[in-house]
Amino acid sequence: MHDLATVRVYATRSDAEIVRARLVSDGIEALVIADDEGGLNPGFYSHYGVRVVVGATDLPRARTALGLEAMIVEGTVITEMIEHARRWAPNEACGLVAARNGIVVRAYTLPNADPGPDRFTLDPAEQFRAIQDAEARGWAIVGLFHSHPAGEPIPSRGDLEGGGDPAWVNFIVGVEAGAIAVRAYHYEDGVATATEIERR
Question: pLDDT of 33-47, one tens digit each?
Answer without folding.
Answer: 886 555 555 554 444
